[in-house]
Specification:
The structure is a single chain. With about 375 residues, the chain is α/β, with parallel strands linked by helices. The protein has 3 domains: about 80 residues, Orthogonal Bundle (DNA polymerase, domain 1), CATH 1.10.150.20; about 180 residues, Rossmann fold; about 70 residues, Winged helix-like DNA-binding domain superfamily/Winged helix DNA-binding domain (Arc Repressor Mutant, subunit A), CATH 1.10.10.10. Helices cover about 45% and strands about 15% of the residues. It contains 17 helices and 12 strands. The strands form 2 sheets. A 9-stranded mixed beta sheet has the order 1-2-6-5-4-3-7-8-9, sandwiched between helices. Helix 1 crosses helix 6, helix 7 runs parallel beside helix 8 and helix 15 packs across helix 17. The longest helix is centred in the first third of the chain and has 16 residues. The chain is globular, with a radius of gyration of 22 Å. It starts with a helix and ends with a strand. About 0% of the residues have low confidence.
């Protein structure tokens, strides 16, 4: 196990320090272990820290709590990922308030090529469940991982449909993963781990708390390339998640409904306010996201290789050989050494030829793994 894992856990146990400030501390000090080696006076001068937080960092209780958590992690055979680790979910690395640490159990499937978050009311109607099942079924040929929150209603329907159609899925929990909440979903949670993951940023024995679920929702939004709201009232966790995804520059989709239906008021509002695209099927999502089925590599697309200019081929090869699913414009610029003007033209041409796709956050990826 990582020699610094105790320090990484300890960083999450400092009262008053959240993900953004924690990342700043790591950056200023040059590493997580180095934070705890600094003198209190030095720590207090770091922007956002001050004397009170410096005192919190130096408390003995921080490492006592971390040691207890680590023992539980080992005992329960739980995985841990720090935000700088190579296997940490790449999508969460691109949001400022992404969790410092994640605990997980499962197949470690959170860096898949495509992901769709599905959320909705806990009081799902039969209509909502049927629509959810139909959309997940249609997505089975698109190499998509389903992300949701294990709650009653639409969340559970999304997870069950993913399992039914053998699609990898991720359950993000608002409590520690030693606890299944709601308890009625113990079997569902176990089945998710067979072809997906159960994850949480909270220590293993953390009980469910009302304040934890908005934090959980940002992870669902962050892990998703796109987010679908199936049913929701005008207020609630699903609407919060949708607005978070929108703020993260993710595409949001919503199922419309009759104006007199309580659990269509939220989805209709998202559409009305241009937060979400009106969605009737998986085909609507796939079209907007420019997702092709895994078996749709056509002869025309193959022929395009011969039509690429030298510059286009160079940029395409950089994207194709990247260890990550996508690259930012700055990363491509550094790797290719083209000017920004040249690169913009090349990226546009490759996109028009159907070779690459422009993803949220000004990132690019190849259309297919060829």
């Amino acid at each position: 196990m990582d020699n610094n894992i105790l320090y990484k856990i300890a960083l999450t146990q400092i009262e008053g320090i959240g993900p953004v400030l924690a990342k700043n501390l790591v950056s200023y000090c040059g590493g997580v272990k180095e934070i705890f080696e600094q003198k209190k006076r030095t720590l207090s001068k770091i922007p956002g820290v001050g004397l009170l937080l410096a005192d919190e960092i130096k408390k003995d209780s921080v490492f006592k709590n971390a040691d207890k958590i680590l023992k539980s992690v080992i005992k329960n055979n739980t995985g841990i990922l720090f935000y700088l680790d190579e296997d940490y979910p790449s999508r969460l690395k691109h949001i400022n308030d992404g969790p410092i640490l994640l605990y997980f159990q499962g197949t470690q499937s959170f860096n898949s090529k495509r992901s769709l978050g599905i959320v909705g009311t806990r009081n799902a109607t039969n209509r909502g469940k049927a629509i959810c099942d139909s959309i997940v079924n249609e997505l089975k040929d698109y190499d998509v991982t389903i992300v949701s929150g294990l709650a009653f209603g639409i969340d559970a329907a999304a997870h069950r449909s993913a399992i039914k159609y053998n699609i990898p899925n991720i359950a993000v929990m608002g409590n520690g993963i030693n606890i299944t909440y709601p308890s009625q979903h113990q079997k569902l949670r176990s089945n998710i781990s067979l072809n997906g993951d159960v994850i949480s940023e909270f220590p293993l024995d953390t009980k469910p708390d009302k304040g934890h679920f908005p934090m959980r929702n940002r992870i669902i939004a962050g892990l998703s390339d796109a987010l679908l709201v199936v049913e929701s009232d005008i207020r609630g966790g699903s609407i919060i998640t949708a607005k978070m995804a929108f703020d993260y520059n993710k595409d949001v989709f919503a199922i419309p409904g009759r104006i007199e239906d309580r659990y269509s008021r939220g989805t209709n509002s998202l559409i009305k306010n241009n937060i979400a695209y009106l969605t009737e099927s998986a085909a609507d999502i796939a079209k907007m996201m420019n997702w092709n089925k895994t078996n749709e590599i056509t002869a025309v697309q193959m022929q395009m290789f011969a039509e690429l200019t030298a510059g286009e081929q160079k940029v395409f090869d950089i994207l194709k050989n990247s260890e990550n699913e996508s690259m930012s414009v700055d990363e491509i610029h550094y790797a290719s050494q083209f000017t920004m003007g040249e690169l913009a033209s090349i990226l546009l041409n490759l996109e028009l030829k159907g070779m690459i796709e422009n993803m949220p956050g000004a990132r690019y990826s190849i259309m297919h793994k060829l």
